[in-house]
Amino acid sequence: MKKISVLTLLIYITGIEMLIAQSGWILKPGGITFDLRCTVMLDSQYSICAGDGNIVLISSNGGFNWQQIPAGNDLMQDIDFINENTGFILNSDYIIKTTNKGLNWTYIDAGPYNKTNIDFINEDTGFISGTDGGDNSPVAYVKKTTNGGLNWDHNAMLDIGAARDVKFFNPQEGAAFVCNRLHITTNGGVNWSRTQFPEGCFNSIYSFNLNSHFSFSNLGKIYMTVNAGVNWTEQNSGTTKHIFNSFFTDSANGYAVGDSGLILRTSNGGTDWTIQNSNTNKKLFDVYFFNRDVGIVVGEDGTILKTTTGGLTFVNSNTNVIPDKFSLSQNFPNPFNPTTTIHYSLSENSYVILKVYGILGNEITTLINERQNAGNYEVTFDGSDLSSGIYFYRLEAESFVETKRMMLLK
User: Using one digit for the tens of pLDDT, what is the confidence trace for 220-271?
Assistant: First the structure.
């Protein structure tokens, strides 16, 4: 049998990833087939995923390898880390806790009844939401701990219905969500006010503060409130697929994931959403971004996707032909609307940073931020979310640095 060198195998795997990554989302197989329900990134390389199996997946090298950590029972559905070491995963029946980045987990008894979401604001104070009373007569509740999860007080019985989420912004101010109602507290959960959601039950909600929330529901419905649920405004989602979860990197940039490989992105605070190509038709259950460009998505049948470009670009590479020098070519077409291709060449293996800047020198996005083999590369830049004007792209590779100008003309 012919032997394959490690270098050849790495180049082969890298080539596969490049082909898969034509949307900016790269498949990162974790070696499991059960559904993944929740995920978090502790830095740009360190990710933790969990779901319907009795293990937690951990990668410390950007998803290239995954370690399987035994973690009790299955049906793990929400994860929350306080810092890079300490975090919690919520099972419908109990909680597990780690203090060493997920390498070991201990069991915490948080009492009976179904649990849905967990949120810690510091190492001592945290909240869980859940549903009491069974499927026939569900009553949503919130529980609170002030000693790192060792003990939980039955903080409040909120409302008739299934609990969806809980989020606290400080020890006193928080929000909880029950099917089609938003509940607000300003005294640590002792008392709650209630406002009505515009229609039906929503699947998930993302909260910025006590007043500003996004809700995501079936058939692609997205609503926003800026006055604690008194009024809701429907957003332009561009889809009718179910939306399961969301994440915002800041007040302008956010992502939502859902049925049949759905990934949505907004760059204007949710007013408009664009559909990204995920290269999968699997259900996607959770999304988390470490920064504006580096994020992870998990879903059905062990699906794990990662992007280092905000999902906006793709990279094609040819490492069979090694150029004799570093170079950065003029983008084509130029002017462009809304996409253009940037070619560059690496004469040796290098750590590559390729960024786009505005005319005033403000950073727009990072297209590439990773180590690449010597070869010829092309990257597609999508300016759909930008206004017409002059932009600059800058390549840094080892000691090579070059900047070129391009024009977006809509």
Answer: 999 999 999 999 999 888 899 999 999 999 888 899 999 999 999 888 888 8
Confirm if 342 and 378 have CB atoms less than 8 A apart.
yes
- Measured distance CA(176)–CA(155) in Å, rounded: 12
CA-based R_g, the chain, Å:
23
> Per residue in 98-112, is it b (16+ CB within 10 Å) or e — as a string?
bbebbeebeebebbe
Report CA dihedral (233, 237, 243, 249) to the nearest 10 degrees. Answer: -80
Would you call 131 helix, strand, or coil by DSSP?
strand
Cis peptide before 198 (omega within 30 of 0): no
Residues linked to residue 339 through DSSP beta bridges, in sequence order: 382
The CA-to-CA distance between both ends of the chain, in Å, stands at 57
**pLDDT grade, residue 135 (50/70/90)?**
low
Query: Which residue is listed with tokens 């607000």?
Result: 184
Map residue 74 onto helix, strand or coil.
coil
Which has the minimum average pLDDT: 39-48, 150-159, 376-385? 150-159
CA 270 from chain center: how many Å? 16
Distance CA(258)–CA(216), nearest Å, equals: 10
Element (H, E) at 13: helix 6-20
The model's pLDDT over 13-57, given as tens digits with 9 standing for 90+, comes to: 344 343 334 457 888 889 999 999 999 999 988 999 999 998 999
Residues 299 and 33: beta-carbon distance below 8 Å: no
Token digits for 363? 């950073």
Domains within the chain, CATH numbers bracketed: 1-106+254-309 (no CATH), 110-234 (2.130.10.10), 315-408 (2.60.40.1930)
> Which tens digits make up the pLDDT trace of 230-244?
999 998 888 999 999
CB neighbour list of residue 165: distance below 8 Å, 6 or more residues apart: 116, 117, 129, 176, 177, 204, 205
Amino acid at 344: Y
